[in-house]
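User: Hey, my collaborator sent me this sequence without any context and asked if I could get a structure. I don't really work with proteins. Can you help?
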Amino acid sequence: MIEQYKKMIQRFKRDIGVEADSELLFKALCHSSFTNEIEREDLGSFESNERLEFLGDAVLDLCVADILFNRYSVSEGTMSKVRAVVASEEILARVSKDRKIGNYLLLGKGEEKSGGRERDSILADALEAVLGAIYLSNGLSKSKRFVYNILNEYIERSIKGKLLLDYKTALQELTQGLYGIRPDYILKKEEGIPPDNLFIVSVNINNEEAACGKGKTKKGAEQEAARKAYRKMKTFLEGKK
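Assistant: No problem. I've predicted the 3D structure and written it out in structure-token form, which is a compact way to encode the shape of the chain:
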């Protein structure tokens, strides 16, 4: 690790409340855009956080499953849904933003200019990489404690039905229960040029457009359309009670 980054890692440990090997934490904060840029400019060779992120993703799934199994008396189906929500990119990015992990990321100049420090996918991956570093440094027990500390609020809310992210599944369950059909998603338009393109998708129920959604990806646009349709239907149904 370059000398100039040692103080940064110490600040990261103090501010985030993380205890792990400094070299591993440095690696966890190195985005591939940074390591590629360093190599292109012949300034050295560093490994990006991609391998640690891969490991951290697996550790996260295990820790959340362990927490749900040992702390909550819920069904296997509920455990699967809760884990999918709390381990999602959106929630991990929220946690990463709350803990200001983005302030410590090492990014390439291009990624920095394009807003990478606030990009959900980069922030979520960095958090998983940090968890990978904690696991390698301290083992499963402390990894589970870290996961519980950062995700317990979201686990509680998800179990109580107050945190919903997979709106496509929720909408499908709702429409199948009411009408015995699945929603249809139709790509209406694609605007712009990658990576600044925008997808516009409609969700149809009973051959009628229920809502439209926009997103940087087709899946994201579908989720946004499903979210709008789901909330509209829930509001209507609750008003009939």
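In plain terms: The chain has two domains: 1-160, 167-239. You can pass these tokens on to your collaborator as they are.
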